[in-house]
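User: New here, any thoughts?
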Amino acid sequence: MRTRRMRWGYLFGIGFIILILIVLISAAILIRRPFPETNGTIKLTGLDAPVEVYRDEHGIPHIYASTTHDLFMAQGFVHAQDRFWQMEFSRRIGNGTLSEIMGPATLDSDRFIRTLGWHRTAQMEIEQLGPEVLAALEAYAQGVNAYLASEGPAYGLEFEILGLTGVDFEPEPWTPLNTLTWGKVMAWDLGGNRSVELAYAHLIARLGMQAYEELVVPYGEDKPVIVTELPSEISMAAIPEVATHQFLFGEGDDLGSNNWVLSGSRTESGFPILANDTHLGIQLPSIWYENGIHCTPVGPECPYNVVGFTFPSVPGVIIGHNDRIAWGVTNVGPDVQDLFIERTNPQNPDQYEVNGRWEDMQIIEEQIFIAGEEEPEIVRVRVTRHGPIINDIAGGTNEEWSFGWQPLALSWTALEPGTIWESVLMINRAQDWDSFREALSFWDVPSQNFVYADVEGNIGYQTPGRIPIRASGDGSLPVPGWTGAYDWVDFIPFEELPRSFNPEKGYLVTANNAVVDGSYRYFISKDWAPGYRAKRISELIEAQEILSVADIQRIHADSMPLYAQEVLPALLALEPESAEAARALDLLRAWDGVADRDSSAAAIFEALRVHMVDRIFADELGEDLLDRMRGKVMDAIPTILQDENSHWFDDIYTEQVEGQETMLLLALEDALADLEDRLGDSMEEWRWGDLHTATFKDLGLGQSGIVPIEWLFNRGPVEADGTGGAPNATGYSLADPYEVTSLPSQRMIVDLQYFENSLTMHTTGQSGHTFHKHYADFIDPWRNIEYHPMLWTRGQVEAAAADHMTLIP
């Protein structure tokens, strides 16, 4: 009996091991099945001639084609090979169709996006595209569809996981419309001030104009410039929360970027050096995809020879260099979104007043299909001359509480057909400053700070964009729409937008700071970044007469927030009673001001930053409004600290008047209690890196709340240096600290003497396929401010090739 039991036990053990092996092998096959073929020969029907694709050890492809059609077709194919889930997810955001695969969880965003009508505007754009741009978009779509035809069901593990949940769908063919709606997502995330405008309206409704004037601090005179009737509260409450959200490029007060360019008079080589790092939301895969596209030969029929950072979903290169020029971008942040209060006809809510007359609104019905539900939801959209009514979808006139409700129409430059993709292709072909500026004259939205350098030694700066001129007002608050008094009457002419060429000081810096001062004749914005990053970068440049590429790397890595220098004097003057608080202040006195991951003082200061905001402003503003304005009121603290008797230092819920010292001591106590709870009792062992970590989360499924699925797709946490306001701007939410929410999503240094010496890096890796060797191989180099070569010449590319793929007709 015992022998039989042992035999059965033995057989059961063997069977269990075999079962485990089968499961593991099946999982490995399932995970690896979407990995693209990057070596050998692949047939792509529709090509004019063979195309060569070389990938280096990091998976960065360089494409060599003899026709423009083949170049962009191959780029679409390569993008889809590595990033099709990202492309599918982002096009569904742009079309407002996420709920078809994600279910009710994404219904709010679909309702809002369909109300705005990005797909409707994109369709108008297609009808106005020039033949050259349309041909590029169609060739790109042809390449994506060639990938879909060749891969069958193995598009990515995300598709397999969705299939297991009952959401089984076949991706539709890619079309130029999908690229154009992607552009609307980019413009929404980077090109508007609606969340600030809404917060200002809430602030004034709650506390009045004095609070607005005290908390919305004017741009500081010591910070550099780049070139020398309110709606009812019930109307505001009806605006959907999703109206303040970004969809692809991330959330937070620290979204922005740095770029700068040095003339040869400031560099070791005597040639310009151009640097860029764009600060976007943390995500996986990276928003960026490095790529080289090369015509062989380069000529009038095939004029492209360019490398740099691309967006999967879009042909061409967004940031990079060709054989003559280099360019980089940061966000200008102009006010290109206004909210208009419309007055409706009491007898007919589909009519609104225009200069004393009732006009009919345009009525559009949008169908939203939802995974797991048989019937679509119908969204009824009302559109006025100013734009769509954005608070209808949260109730509007059909709600019982609608007394006092007013419809708010959104005017936004991107809701008119644009020409940004024509601009991208023209930039890629530009050969000098004049052709570069001609290309930028087509760049409409989102407006960007472009820095420029060329091989002749020139450097320059240009603001492009469609920036409105108003009949009156500055667009910072919702305004009456029925009189025309605040309407847009024109746009700033391109020739009058700010620019600079070969400035005498030998460099240009932009970091979302003020483009112009008050002497500029047009209004661009009042919501500039406070200027700390621009000032710090300028200081580091001015500290050396001559700089090298290595010096530029050190500027990228700089983690000093100058904000600390403005608030530390008041903090260090405190006289706390507790020994613990005194010890914390001693650490701050000895601090070098750098937010590196090993610093205990940085952890204390950042915790103080968070808790000062709560102690000083939470009582007056309330939780909801404070969460909308944490970044703005934090910027106001240095100004408020100058007045020890400011009313902001009084807690309105207590009988006594606390004063500045009491409120700062309370904030210090709060900060230390927070850190003890998170990091333990030993202050000297606290480390900023233990708090400030980066977790890269997959679009969609990486935030599902299902631990095994999140384990499959997410990577991290990893410790990170930096903080908001430092050049190395790894920002976090002041409402939910201290995990990284925004970061330098890429870094680039272009050497105009020898392009071969240029350097780049982005956050995660080239591949969007989980467990692929290039899925997360950039994370450690990125956080340690390391780079890889930005390959340029064909000889350099072929010598570094790890994979070689030939695409044939």
In short: DSSP finds 23 helices and 31 strands in the chain.
